[in-house]
Write a structure and sequence with these properties.
The complex is a heterodimer of chains A (about 290) and B (about 300).
Chain A lengths: L1 H70 L12 H19 L4 E5 L3 E10 L2 E11 L5 E5 L7 H8 L4 H28 L16 E6 L10 E6 L10 E6 L7 H16 L2 H11 L10
Antiparallel strand pairs in A: 1-2, 2-3, 3-4, 5-6, 6-7
Helix pairs in contact in A: 1-2, 3-4
Chain B lengths: L2 H13 L2 H11 L4 H5 L7 H14 L4 H14 L6 E7 L11 H16 L2 E7 L4 E8 L12 E6 L4 E5 L7 H11 L4 E9 L2 H9 L23 E8 L15 E8 L3 H6 L13 H4 L1 H4 L3 E3 L4
Parallel strand pairs in B: 7-9
Antiparallel strand pairs in B: 1-5, 1-6, 2-3, 3-4, 4-5, 7-8
Helix pairs in contact in B: 1-4, 1-5, 2-5, 6-7
The chains are: A alpha+beta (about 290), B alpha+beta (about 300).
Family (chain B): Belongs to the CENP-N/CHL4 family.
Keywords (chain B): Centromere, Chromosome, Nucleus
Subcellular location (chain B): Chromosome, Centromere; Nucleus
Chain lengths: ~290, ~300
């Protein structure tokens, strides 16, 4: 009884295996067929995309030819009755054209899957400084995905004012702020690194480098009293201060030579970059050449 | 050295894990190199602590020194607190922010001291243009409680400040006032954003992505970074099923649903493919980076 059962089970198992084999080979031939069909469909798609690419290339060349003449008169994007897709494409074209035109002013960009990533390279006095990027998603509304702009630069304010209506103005304004910040930072860094000998205390600065406070001597190690300078940069798009106060403590108010020096220093700080002023201090030693005040 | 100061320093040092002790003591920079060299850090912790307290006594540590040590400990153990985010704003047409750290510290301290008389305020600046503020609260008649301080991390020349939520609620308005006035802002609001991870909060609030342009892969959305966040939904439970205990109540059940994960947004993304949730996911669960909120209240329509 057990023997018949066992061989019966063996036959069943064998039948099962054969069944699986057949269904597997069915499956495989089915898969092969569907893959072949997919391949055919993809081939057609490739042809279609290639044609589209060639058409777009032709359009881009066309556009480039007229970019220079148009750039000065670029108007804010007009959202007339074009459908959304066309409006977005137009925005993308606009950004590309702007980047083309501004390449040499430190603004460049590359296309991304969702829009464009803009890179702003800052410079001051011919020195290439830090670069910052802004990742824009071309959607409705236009959106900043993420960025490497320092947190204390008013990016949100600038975006709120210009991003939706005038990308060009947005990029230009941001460039201004970043270049000015870079320039101020450069001056403060140079002062700290190159002219530490003339400073009699640490340089007080804030993140935007728009308030600098320091004390300095023209003759380090000498007997003269130190000057105290306080530079305010109320214009965040400028690299020169808007307000300068220089005081000289411990000196008789009636001393005219100190008063003259003090006043001339104030003028210098207002008109020349910080590190250049100190370079002139270092060059002239005790005697300040009045001809520098131009 | 005051007994309460000694006790506070002792308890602070006891909290510090042995492997961090020398790093934190060096950052504190209160005990000299020579003094630290006399300590045998391989002893039992209690003996090490006793020796350190003795050295602090020699140097006459004050409550400010102790407070500074506490700040440094908290900087190393940020995740022990839950952090709230406050956003300040200026009035229209206000002047450019000429932030002066000295002025800020003086102003902040004065405002609190004038209101409370007994309060310990300490500051520690970091390299990223942030200042850590520690406030131990007292009242007109009681000394400050050093064991329940509030910590604030303020990024100067930005509108944002992060505060540890463990504070006594009645001091919130005063803290807000002090921050706003000292930083020359007009208004302050609490954002619906809260987490143990300061870095995650910073990433959302500042939308920053610190990679160089060349290697920047802009197709990687912010969502894919591990944010270690929780999502909190306050809502009412309503069931369409009959015979459900929760649905048979007269008033719908109010509840707080908390989604928590070290990689929360990743986890949520996998819900739909796993068949657990319908696609597309509710925008409540995916809008965190865009709306900068992770605490939602769902009301009846």
């Amino acid at each position: 009884m057990a023997g018949i059962l066992a061989s019966g089970l063996g036959v069943l198992a064998h039948l099962e295996r054969l069944e699986t084999q057949v269904s597997r080979s069915h499956k495989q031939s089915e898969e092969l067929q569907s893959m072949q069909a997919q391949e055919g469909a993809l081939g057609t798609k490739i042809h279609k995309l290639r044609r589209l690419r060639d058409e777009l290339r032709a359009a881009v060349w066309h556009r480039r030819a007229s970019v220079k003449a148009c750039i000065a008169n670029v108007e804010p994007n007009q959202t007339v009755e074009i459908n959304e897709q066309e409006a977005l494409e137009e925005k993308l074209e606009n950004v590309k054209a702007i980047l083309q035109a501004y390449h040499f002013t430190g603004l460049s960009g590359k296309l991304t899957s969702q829009g464009v990533c803009v890179c702003i390279s800052t410079a001051f006095e011919g020195n290439l400084l830090d670069s910052y990027f802004v990742d824009l998603v071309i959607q409705k509304p236009l959106r900043i995905h993420h960025h490497s702009v320092p947190v204390f630069i008013p990016l949100e304010e600038i975006a709120a004012k210009y991003l939706q209506t005038n990308i060009q103005h947005f990029l230009f304004s941001l460039c201004e702020y970043l270049n000015a910040y870079s320039g101020r930072k450069y001056q403060a860094d140079r002062l700290q690194s190159d002219f530490a000998a003339l400073l009699t205390g640490p340089l007080q600065r804030n993140p935007l480098c728009n308030l600098l406070s320091f004390t300095y001597k023209l003759d380090p190690g000498g007997q003269s009293f130190p000057f105290c300078a306080r530079l305010l940069y109320k214009d965040l798009t400028a690299t020169l201060p808007t307000d300068v106060t220089v005081t000289c403590q411990g000196v008789e108010a009636s001393s005219t030579s100190w008063e003259e020096q003090r006043a001339s220093h104030e003028t210098l700080f207002c008109t020349k970059p910080l590190h250049q002023v100190f370079a002139s201090f270092a060059r002239k030693g005790e005697k300040l050449d009045m001809s520098l005040v131009s | 050295m005051d007994e309460t100061v000694a006790e506070f320093i002792k308890r602070t040092i006891l909290k510090i894990p042995m492997n961090e002790l020398t790093t934190i003591l060096k950052a504190w920079d209160f005990l000299s190199e020579n003094q630290l060299q006399t300590v045998n850090f391989r002893q039992r912790k209690e003996s090490v602590v006793q020796h350190l307290i003795h050295l602090c006594e020699e140097k006459r540590a004050s409550i400010s020194d102790a407070a500074l040590l506490d700040i440094i400990y908290m900087q190393f153990h940020q995740h022990q607190k839950v952090w709230d985010v406050f956003q300040m704003s200026k009035g229209p047409g206000e002047d450019v922010d000429l932030f002066d750290m000295k002025q800020f510290k003086n102003s902040f301290k004065k405002i609190l001291q004038r209101a409370l008389k007994n309060v310990t305020v300490s500051f520690r600046e970091t390299e990223e243009n942030a200042v850590w503020i520690r406030i131990a609260w007292g009242t007109q008649y009681t000394k400050p409680n050093q064991y329940k301080p509030t910590y604030v991390v303020y990024y100067s020349q930005t509108p944002y400040a992060f505060t540890s939520s463990s504070m006594l609620r009645r001091n919130t308005p005063l803290l807000g006032q002090a921050l706003t006035i000292a930083s020359k802002h007009h208004q302050i609001v609490k954002m619906d954003l809260r987490s143990r991870y300061l870095d995650s909060l910073k990433a959302i609030v500042f939308k920053q992505y610190n990679q160089t342009y060349e290697t920047h892969n802009s197709t990687t959305p912010l969502q894919e970074r591990s944010l270690g966040l929780d999502i909190n939904l306050e809502t009412k439970f309503k069931s369409g099923l009959n015979g459900s205990i929760l649905a048979e109540r007269e008033e719908p059940l109010r509840c707080l649903i908390k989604f928590s994960s070290p990689h929360l947004l990743e986890a949520l993304k996998s819900l739909a493919p796993a068949g657990i949730a319908d696609a597309p996911l509710s925008p409540l669960l995916t809008c965190i980076p865009n709306k900068r909120m992770n605490y939602f209240k769902i009301r009846d329509k």
